[in-house]
Write a structure and sequence with these properties.
The complex is a heterodimer of chains A (about 625) and B (about 475). With about 625 residues, chain A is an alpha+beta fold. Chain A is about 40% helix and about 20% strand. In chain A, the strands form five sheets. In chain A, strands 1, 4, 6, 7, 8, 11, 12, 13, 20, 21 and 22 form an eleven-stranded mixed β-sheet that branches. In chain A, strands 2-3-10-9 form a four-stranded mixed β-sheet, with no helix packed on it. A four-stranded antiparallel β-sheet of chain A has the order 14-15-19-18, sandwiched between helices. In chain B, helix 4 packs across helix 5, helix 5 packs parallel to helix 10 and helix 7 runs parallel beside helix 8. Chain B has an eight-stranded mixed β-sheet with strand order 9-6-10-12-13-14-17-18, with helices on both faces. A five-stranded antiparallel β-sheet of chain B has the order 4-3-2-1-5. A four-stranded parallel β-sheet of chain B has the order 20-21-22-23, sandwiched between helices. Chain B is an alpha/beta fold and about 475 residues long. Chain B is built from twelve helices and 23 strands. Classes of the chains: A alpha+beta (about 625), B alpha/beta (about 475). The interface between A and B is large, with 61 and 67 residues.
Chain lengths: ~625, ~475
């Protein structure tokens, strides 16, 4: 798929990246920021209720969450939780260390800063935050970062508190652990300027590197989380939440774009059949007794447990349910997801349908079901089973989702799945779920504070990369070096020693890895690195020797001056002689010429490491074998 | 068009000048050019406690930001968006088979709704509004509401107590099945105590309720407290003045506390209300009541109730501390106080330097009572001779009456008589459990965290 293909369907994509900050304490309380815990000391039970808005209505998400009627359990560990996390104490003053780091990143993204920070409450009813809302702020708007020959716009950067970790979500009970709650988080939101799935992943990487370049963000699994927004022309902005790894992004974006196209096709099919939001019809009938004795295991089990079985007829929907929407997935999954999430019928499979009768009820049973529920030739029937209340909710969700199909792509938040597809998570929240948090006063950002932070701003990665390219590094190496942990060592070594930048870069990017893997050298700090190169430079040792010297200084603890002076410098003639002696002493195996040269290259490279490059070893081996 | 003074709501000083200069005001949709960049949004009212250096904008994404007046170079208006606080009301359903409960409001927000456009939290109080917020109420009872006052609870006082007691009397006579009183939590126990004296022998439940977490938030205890309170008022057999708030901090059950022995014990925990020196009356949840004692006054069919709203507000509580000087007591006497409740240390002690002042108080006809700062336990002034000395000076031990309860009762007693002996009779005759003959072994259960068996116990139950 090319850029043109994605442009043809009008694909747009944006990112929301959440990054934890590396502070000692949490954002609104003085609990320490610690690694996540596996144990807990106490549990609290809560429920979430939606708040009526001024329109007398509930926000769509709120209503959905309320429908699910979940018991929410919070597991608390006393190391990382105080009464603030339990929502039993008002917030403490905003963590100033977090604010400084967040302001720094806001400036690096080129955003315009606000003068006074106002804390807002953003409501979440899934229970992920015990108060039912997240305290969130916005620090800057309208920034941008370079990407290729254009710029990607940054809508805003905000500082907010992280939520609890979900431990389980089964039936009507959802369990969270509160260790992560309250950790300072920055949220970077881009404009939907990315036009292909790969661009989305690239931009995510750039932002990741930028924030990491400050050295003040937490790294590791789960410390950075990406949400991706995708839309196609005629579709809708769908948010895919919680993408854990950047390499997953391209496939997720691609699949979502095509899911939306598939849903638009379904809309057209339905509209062509005369089915719209107004003309949509469905009926339902209880079929518990009709299917008694079935061998279809999920329903048989439900019947044994005394649950009910119902059939929902979707008028005119024949063939729609088996229409493909994602790889290996059909439209029926959209319906099954709603039944799972909202009606809490989460033992899968949770529905059966007439577009795909094969592996479910017997054909005789299907005939009975269709007759009893009065299904016509052009219709489809969906069977759902559960307790009385859940089944009723299931029926209504099936009808709801089917009606939404006549309009195209519903407003949803989806969750990323491991295979690159996605599933329904919740109805997309309305844009105005926020209102001011009056527990804390607004906080002024003074000019003094801004100047103080600006003075310490790290060099932007792309500026650094340009500087390295001007030193002679090729752009890929320059890019890698600009975001590497060892870039400071690089800067020092290049300014203080005589070895060329390309050599230094190769040592830091490749040599260090070899030293770690092959020679078990676990640490080489910047000072040792620079001192070793200096000592070698004073004795005018060739650059091939540096890796061997580093092994001595960083691995074996030898002082740089000593390591350098004990290195025997061999002139080209002497070296050639020694190599010949060595090669002659080997018992060369009886193999064809090409493999023999490779074998000898390896032997020479190991033996004379520090004296020759791999290429030189190969050349010698080639000549030697030819001469023998 | 007369936009009135509201156009600059909350803005003063430099910020006000800035708005005037660019001819914009509150609810204007503006584009702002500033030295820090440009912003687009709606100007919101400024809070009165905030400075006069910033203008608040609500951006499209819902966030509010403040822009320093000093950085603003221009503001251009693109229209105006007024905020309207009306919501379509749904009528609270009426069911002739259900009991009628009257909800009296004194303050505190038992339910609210949000205006996302402005961020305002608006109290929801009419039956229709409550029904919208807590639809479960319609399954419990029929509801009538009346807002008596709208004050923070620390501003409740004798005038409000009297008004509430009288209103309760009226409603009982009218025939309601029960009364719920919405009240701020800070002084809920003071009001519960005084109502226990001002409203005696009620035939129906009188339930005080509030919320520890503001009702605009999804996690609020408001809805469940309200459900528990209305259930108690409509269906329980408990005809007393009670406080109904959370038991644990989890959403599990509420506790019904006798109004004269309950106290707010934590500044913010949902589980803050506790019965002191005894056990609560009952547990209440969405389905059942679990009485915990057998001396709860029962619901009656008659409509007889005794309302006595006497109150003399020349009473005070003095919280003793080491090195307290007699001039404190002297100034109370000089300022005309007629009743002093002392919260003494230990079994009810103060230091010797106060004695002359206490004698002076007695000689001036002032009633002085002793309670304990420790809250739990009895005053026992015979044990040490210091206590005996004080009794000789006319200080009267108030047994195990809580300091705040003794304070309101003394005001109530003084409102009925100027005769000190008469006042003493009223004070020391228990009416509603404010003095108990016995303290059960489980009336004081403060376990310390950190101790292994305690931690073990806590980990097994929802907190």
């Amino acid at each position: 798929m090319t850029l043109e293909d994605y442009q043809a369907v009008g694909m747009k994509s944006g990112l929301e990246i959440h990054q934890q900050l590396d502070t000692e304490k949490k954002l609104f309380c003085r609990c320490p920021v610690r690694p996540y815990s596996e144990v807990f000391d106490a549990q609290i039970l809560r429920h979430m209720r939606p708040t009526l808005s001024e329109l007398g209505e509930y926000d769509g998400t709120a209503l959905m969450e309320f429908k699910t009627k979940k018991n929410i359990i919070y597991q608390i560990n006393k190391e990382t939780v105080c009464t603030y996390e339990m929502d039993d104490t008002p917030p403490f003053e905003l963590n100033q260390q977090a604010l400084d780091i967040a302001l720094e990143i806001t400036m690096l993204l080129g955003c315009k800063l606000v003068s006074e920070v106002h804390i807002a409450r953003k409501q979440y009813l899934d229970g992920s935050i015990p108060t039912g809302f997240q305290r969130t702020t916005i620090l800057g708007v309208d920034g941008s970062i370079p990407y290729g020959d254009r710029r990607i716009g940054i809508i805003q950067l905000g500082l907010e508190e992280d939520a609890c970790r979900e431990i389980s979500d089964i039936g009507h009970e959802r369990v969270y652990r509160t260790d992560r709650l309250g950790i300072p988080l920055i949220e970077t939101v881009t404009y939907p300027d990315m036009r292909t799935p790969q661009e989305v992943a690239d931009v995510a990487q750039i932002i990741r590197h930028l924030t990491r370049s400050t050295g003040k963000v937490r790294t590791g699994i789960g410390k950075t989380r990406q949400d991706v927004n995708v839309s196609v022309a005629g579709g809708r902005r769908v948010e895919i939440k919680g993408v854990p790894r950047i390499p997953m992004i391209p496939l997720l974006v691609h699949n979502e774009a095509f899911r939306q196209l598939a849903l638009l096709d379904i809309k057209k099919m339905l509209n062509d059949r005369g089915i719209t939001g107004e003309t949509f019809r469905y009926d339902s009938a209880e079929i518990t007794d009709i299917v008694r004795g079935t061998r279809y295991l999920p329903v048989a089990t439900a019947l044994k447990e005394g649950l009910e079985v119902h059939a929902v007829v979707l008028r005119g929907f024949r063939g729609i349910l088996s229409t493909k929407t994602q790889p290996e997935t059909t439209f029926s999954k959209e319906i099954s997801d709603r039944v799972r999430v909202v009606a809490c019928l989460d033992t899968l499979p949770n529905i059966a349908h007439s577009d795909s009768e094969g592996e479910t009820f017997s054909s005789a049973e299907w005939t009975k079901i269709k007759k009893h529920s009065k299904m016509g030739d052009k219709d489809a029937v969906v069977v759902v089973w559960g307790g009385a209340d859940d089944a009723k909710m299931g029926i209504s969700e099936i009808a709801l989702r089917a009606r939404e199909a006549t309009a195209g792509v519903p407003d949803e938040t989806r969750q990323a799945l491991a295979d690159g597809t996605n599933g329904f998570e919740r109805i997309l929240p309305g844009p105005n779920r926020m209102y001011p948090d009056t527990d804390l006063p607004p906080l002024a950002i003074t000019d003094e504070r801004i100047e103080r932070i600006r003075a310490t701003l790290a060099e932007l990665p792309w500026d650094r990369q340009k500087r390295y390219e001007e030193m002679g590094l090729d752009s890929e190496t320059a890019r890698r070096m600009s975001i590497s942990k060892r870039r400071y060592a690089f800067d020092k070594a290049v300014s203080k020693t005589d070895y060329p930048p390309t050599i230094v870069a190769e040592l830091l990017l490749g040599g260090m890895r070899r030293l770690r893997r092959r020679d078990g050298v676990s640490r080489c700090d910047d000072t040792s690195f620079v001192d070793t190169l200096n000592a070698a430079g004073e004795r005018k040792l060739p650059s091939q020797s540096l890796e061997v010297l580093l092994k001595k200084t960083c691995g074996d603890g030898v002082k740089p001056a000593e390591a350098a002076s004990s290195f025997e410098v061999l002139g080209a003639g002497k070296l050639e002689k020694k190599m010949k002696e060595f090669a002659s002493s080997l018992e060369l195996p009886d193999i064809d010429r090409e493999r023999l040269v490779n074998y000898l290259t390896g032997q020479i490279a190991i033996r004379f490491r520090g004296y020759i490059t791999g290429r030189e070893a190969f050349d010698f081996a080639d000549r030697f074998v030819a001469s023998v | 068009m007369n936009l009135g003074s509201d156009i600059y709501k909350g803005y003063r000083g430099d910020a006000l000048e800035c708005l005037k200069k660019f001819e914009v005001g509150v609810w204007f949709d503006v584009e702002v050019d500033s030295t820090r960049g440009n912003f687009r949004g709606i100007i919101l009212p400024r809070s009165e406690t905030a400075d006069d250096d910033h203008i608040v904008l609500k951006l499209d994404n819902g966030y509010n930001v403040g822009l320093a007046v000093g950085t603003i170079e221009s503001m251009t208006a693109h229209g105006r968006r007024e905020a309207h606080y009306k919501i379509p009301e749904k009528a609270f359903p009426f069911d002739p088979k259900k009991p009628m409960v009257k909800l009296l409001g004194t303050g505190g927000t038992i339910a609210s709704r949000l205006d996302y456009r402005t961020g305002a939290v608006i109290p929801a109080f009419t039956p229709g509004e409550l029904y919208g917020s807590v639809p479960e109420l319609a399954d419990i009872c029929n509801l009538e509401t009346e807002k008596l006052y709208g004050v923070f609870s620390e501003n409740m006082g004798p005038e409000q107590w009297k008004g509430t007691a009288e209103k309760i009397g009226e409603e009982i006579v009218k025939g309601v099945a029960g009364i719920v009183i919405g009240h701020g939590t800070d002084t809920m126990h003071h009001t519960a105590a005084i109502l226990s004296f001002m409203v005696q022998d009620t035939p129906v439940p009188i339930v005080m309720v509030g919320s520890q977490r503001s009702s605009d938030r999804p996690s609020s205890d408001a809805a469940l407290n309200l459900i528990h309170a209305t259930r108690t008022a409509a269906h329980s057999d408990f005809a007393e003045v009670m406080v109904c708030m959370f038991g644990p901090t989890s959403d599990q059950y509420g506790l019904l506390h006798r109004g004269t022995r309950v106290r707010k014990m934590h500044s913010s925990y949902r589980s803050t209300f506790r019965t002191i020196g005894d056990i609560p009356l009952a547990m209440v949840d969405r389905e059942k009541f679990t009485p915990l004692r057998d001396d709860i006054k029962k619901r009656r069919k008659d409509r007889n109730v005794t309302i006595n709203t006497a109150f003399d507000d020349r009473v005070t509580i003095v919280y003793y501390y080491p090195n307290m000087k007699p001039d404190i007591i002297d100034s109370l006497i000089d300022n005309g106080y007629r009743g002093i409740v002392i919260a003494g240390t230990g079994l009810g002690h103060v230091n010797k330097p106060l004695y002359p002042a206490l004698k002076r108080a007695f000689d001036e006809g002032i009633s002085v009572y002793m309670t304990v700062q420790t809250l739990w336990g009895y005053v026992q002034m015979y044990v040490y001779d210091t206590g005996r000395d004080m009794m000789d000076l006319g200080v009267i031990p108030a047994y195990n009456m809580l300091p705040e309860v003794a304070y309101v009762k003394l005001g109530w007693a003084l409102g009925q008589s100027e005769d000190r002996e008469e006042v003493k009779k009223i004070m020391l005759t228990p009416i509603a459990g404010e003095i108990t003959e016995r303290e059960p072994h489980n009336g004081y259960l403060i376990y310390q965290g950190g101790i292994p068996e305690v931690e073990e116990f806590i980990s097994q139950y929802k907190k």
